[in-house]
Amino acid sequence: MSQRTYFIKTFGCQMNEHDSERAAGVLEMMGYRKAADADSAGLVLFNTCAIRENADNKLYGQLSQLKPLKLADPSKTIVVGGCLAQKDQDVLAAKAPYVDVVYGTHNMGRLPQLLAQADSASLPVIEILEHTEMFPSALPARRDVPHHAWVSISIGCDNTCAFCIVPALRGPEKSRKMGDIVAEVRALVADGVIEVTLLGQNVNSYGRDLVRDGLVPSVEGQRRNRTLFAELLHLLGEIDGLQRVRFTSPHPKDFTTDVFEAMRDIPNVCEQLHLPLQSGSDRILKLMQRSYRSRRFLDLVVEARETIPGLAISTDIIVGFPGETEDDFEGTLTVTEQAAFDSAFTFKYSKRPGTSAVDLDGHIDTTTMDERFMRLSTVTNRLSAQSHQRQAGTVQEVLFEGPSKTDPSRISGRTRQNRLVHVDATSVTVPATMHAVEITRAADHYLLGRVTDQPAGPAVPTPVVQPVAG
Ligand code: 5AD
Ligand code: SF4
Q1: What are 377-432's pLDDT values in tens digits?
Q2: Where are the extended beta strands (E) located within 336-377?
Q3: Structure pTM?
Q4: Looking at the DSSP assignment, which residues form a beta bridge with residue 149?
Q5: Do both 406 and 381 map to the same domain?
Q6: Are residues 172 and 260 in the same domain?
Q7: How far is the CA of 91 from the centre of ligand 1 (A)?
Q8: Neighbours of 457 (CB within 10 A)
Q9: CA–CA distance, 181 with 232 (Å, rounded to integer)
Q10: Which of 19, 209, 435, 442 maximizes the CB count within 10 A of its CB?
C-alpha cells in the first residue's frame, strides 16, 4: 500500500459513531493516519447502518462513486463493516465486488488480520460472526472530539420490536462488567475527557444478563436497592473531573423511579432523557410488540418532569407502521402534544426483511405515509420551537465543541439539556471549555447567545401536562 492513510464514513446511530472511533483507533495503531476525504485516502472504511432502507441506498450510492477511483488505483483499499455488512454480506459482494474487506457487527477487532488477508486476495475477504468476541470498548479509540467519549455499557438487544432489525444484527443483550465501565471512564477522564455518553440499545436493562448469569448478586442485593443502571450512574457521579454524563437509549418499559432519582440527585448526570414513543396508539404499540401503553408512557413523562428539574425529553416516533389507521395516527399526534417533547426524531416506517412487521397486513402507501410524516413533523417542530423559545433570556452552562458546521463565524456547544447553542466565534477561543451563555434568540433547532459573566441558572422546564384518562 503506497499511502497509509484512512477515511471513515459513518452511517446511522451513535453506537456506530462509537464503533468508528474504535476502528480509527485500530487503524492508527497499525500506522494509518487520517486523510481529509475519501478520494485522497489509501483506505476508505464505510461503517454501515441497516435500520431503514434509505441507509442501504446511501451506502450503495457512495460505494459506486468510489468505484472509478478503485479501478484507477487498485491499491486503494475499501472496507465495509457494521450492520448492513452483517445483514447483506452476499448482496454487498455481488453489487460491489471491488470491495476488499467486509466485516460485521461482532468482529471489528479482527480488522488487522482481515486487511492482511485482503493484501493477497483477489475476491473480497468476508468475515461475519454470529457472536461478539470482545467488546469494541476493549479496542483503542481515536476520539473525534477530545473532551467527549462514547462508552458502551451493553451491546445487543433482548427485545423483539416488530419493526427493528437490530436484535438480528447485534445479537442478544450483553452487558459489560460495571468495574470495566468505571475503569474506562476513569482512564478517559485522566486523558482529558469531561463528558461521556453511555451507549446501549436498551441502557436501563443494563446488567440483567449479569444477574441472570450469576456474575453479580441479584439486583435486590445491590447497595441501596438500586437497579444496576442507577447504581452505575451513582458510581460515575463519584468521578472527579467528569462533568457531564448522558445516556441513550432507555426503553420506556424498563424505566424505574431510581433512575429518575439518580438523574435528579447526581450533579454530573445531565437533565436530558431520550424516551422513544414509537406510536401513541395502543393498538399499534401492541402490533409493534412494545409492551408499554400510551397511558404508562405519559405517566413516565410526568414522573420524569416532576422529579428532574429542567428536564428536556426527546423521542423517536415512527409513522405508517403496517395497519396504522387515521385514528391510530391521531393517537400519536395526541400523545405527542401531551408529552410536549422538547425534540423528536420522526421516521417513516421502513420495511426491513428479517423483521416480523414485514408479514403484517395493511402496509401503508407512500402518499399516506408522506402526509402523516408532514403532519407529525409540523407538531414536533412547533413543540421544539416552543421549548427553545422558553429558554430565551436565561443564562445556561454551555460546553463548547468547535466551529459551527454551517457558519464558521460561530462556535457551537450544548447545554446540559443537549440544546445546540451558537455564539460568536471570537468569544470562545478554546474549545472543550464550559461558559455561561445568555440565550438571546431561539430558532426551531438551535439557540443563539452571548457569553456572559453572570452565573448559569436552570433551564426553563417544559410544563407538565397531566395525561387525560384513556
Ligand atoms: N422503520 C422506521 N424507523 C425505524 N426505527 C427502527 N426501525 C425502523 C424501521 N424499520 C427507528 C425507531 C428507533 C430508531 C433508532 O429508529 O424509532 O427508535
Ligand atoms: Fe430495536 Fe426495540 Fe431493541 Fe430498540 S429496543 S434496538 S427498537 S428491538
Answers
A1: 999 999 999 999 999 999 999 999 988 888 989 999 999 999 999 999 998 878 78
A2: 343-348
A3: 0.94
A4: 196
A5: no
A6: yes
A7: 22
A8: 12
A9: 9
A10: 19
